[in-house]
Write a structure and sequence with these properties.
- The chain is of the alpha/beta class and 340 residues long.
- The protein has a single domain (19-326), classed as CofD-like domains (Rossmann fold), CATH 3.40.50.10680.
- It has 13 helices and 14 strands.
- A 7-stranded parallel sheet has the order 5-2-1-9-10-13-14, sandwiched between helices.
- A hairpin with a 5-residue loop joins strand 6 (157-161) and strand 7 (167-169).
- Helix 1 runs parallel beside helix 2, helix 4 runs antiparallel to helix 5 (131-141) and helix 7 runs parallel beside helix 9 (230-236).
- The longest helix has 15 residues, at 112-126.
- 45% of the residues are buried.
- Bound molecules: ligand FO1.
- Ligand FO1 binds next to helix 2 and helix 6.
């Protein structure tokens, strides 16, 4: 197989990647994907990097599956299933249906086109390519102009500890058990030895601003920060870091973030999220429904921006991205006019 050439790291003048205008986002899951789709729509092409969680990755059917990388790739490529927020739109399920008929493992739904991506990734990894290279090849093939960098190419896996002491893999918790069981512990296996992918630390150190996306702080952002050097690199940029709360009115827009926060001893609110990020981000963006928490967020030593954060359509994602960018200074995108 001849891999497609990935977008070259151009050093040409005027490339927004090199002229101090790049925005780097720590990302994982559907909330980050929707935010990045807004961000890329208000920024010049090539000026957005995303450092993506890979601790949800796992092996199934002998394939390496990277759900967060794929969710963001499909969303930015305009290919995502809008109902689920993951997987491909217009997907067919021939392989899964036949696998189920045979009595094979079909609890984790992999559509036919999605499977092609896992086949490609797995073959390239087995041939010796690193995950960052394979990700660049896939994003180039699927029409994504943002640079997605897996936080590490080394093994990093979220393991969930249950109250009885049993531990289960993340996708067993999230998909097979539909995140309906209580969480007593969250472990990032491999975090002690995982090295950042090439470009990760440099991207954080040189970006105009760093955004912590509205992703689950405990299982999407925490594993990114757990990779050697990442937390320190973000903390060193604190003045230029803005975090967006994924919790609105005490609830997660999607997934188990609110319940997990409570179970892990944090407050399930935008304030609880701000407490987790106070050493990393000088600015916190919270939803209008949480306006009454703004003063308490500011008491933590953070600027607090109150805005509409629910990304119900691409226009709202773009509006939120514009507000986030303005909150840390720099070029201000024109406010979007309402569609007629
Ligand atoms: N989530 C589900 O709830 N059920 C699934 O069957 C499922 C399949 C799946 C396949 C590919 C992929 O990239 C994501 C998929 N997801 C599925 C979502 C995934 O488990 C979660 O989005 C993340 O791991 C949590 O951020």
């Amino acid at each position: 197989m001849k891999p497609k050439a990935a977008d070259p790291e151009s050093t040409a003048p005027g490339n927004p990647r090199n002229d101090g205008e790049r925005v780097t986002t720590l990302a994982g899951g559907v909330g980050a994907a929707r935010f990045l789709s807004g961000l890329t729509s208000v920024r010049p092409a090539g000026s957005c990097d995303a450092i993506v969680n890979v601790a949800d990755d796992f092996d199934l059917h002998g394939l390496h599956i990277s759900p967060d990388l794929d969710t963001i790739t499909y969303t930015l490529g305009g290919l995502v299933n809008p109902e689920t927020g993951w997987g491909r739109s217009g997907e067919t399920w021939n392989v899964m249906d036949e696998l189920a008929r045979l009595g094979g493992e079909s609890w984790f739904r992999l559509g036919d086109r999605d499977l092609a991506v896992h086949l490609y990734r797995t073959q390239r990894l087995r041939a010796g390519a690193d995950l960052a290279t394979v990700t660049a090849e896939l994003t180039a093939s699927l029409g994504v102009s943002a640079r997605l960098i897996p936080v590490t190419g080394d093994r990093l896996r979220t393991v969930i500890g249950l109250p009885g002491g049993e531990t289960i893999d993340f996708q067993d918790y999230f998909v097979a058990r539909r995140h309906s069981v209580s969480v007593a512990d969250i472990i990032f296996e491999g975090a002690g030895t995982a090295r950042p992918s090439p470009g990760v630390l440099e991207s954080i150190r040189t970006a105009r601003s760093v955004v912590i996306a509205p992703s689950n702080p405990l299982v999407s952002i925490a594993p990114v920060l757990a990779v050697a050097g990442v937390r320190d690199a973000v903390a060193a940029r604190r003045e230029s870091v803005v975090a967006v709360s994924p919790i609105i009115g005490g609830k997660a827009v999607k997934g188990p973030a609110a319940r997990m926060l409570t179970e892990m001893g944090h407050e399930a609110s935008a304030l609880g999220v701000a407490r987790l990020y106070r050493d990393l981000a000088a600015t916190m963006v919270i939803d209008t429904r949480d306006a009454d928490l703004a003063a308490a967020v500011e008491d933590l030593g953070m600027r607090c921006v109150v805005t509409e954060t629910m990304m119900t359509d691409p226009g709202r994602s773009a509006d939120l991205a514009g507000t986030v960018l303005r909150s840390v200074g720099g070029p201000i995108p024109e406010p979007r006019r309402a569609d007629p």
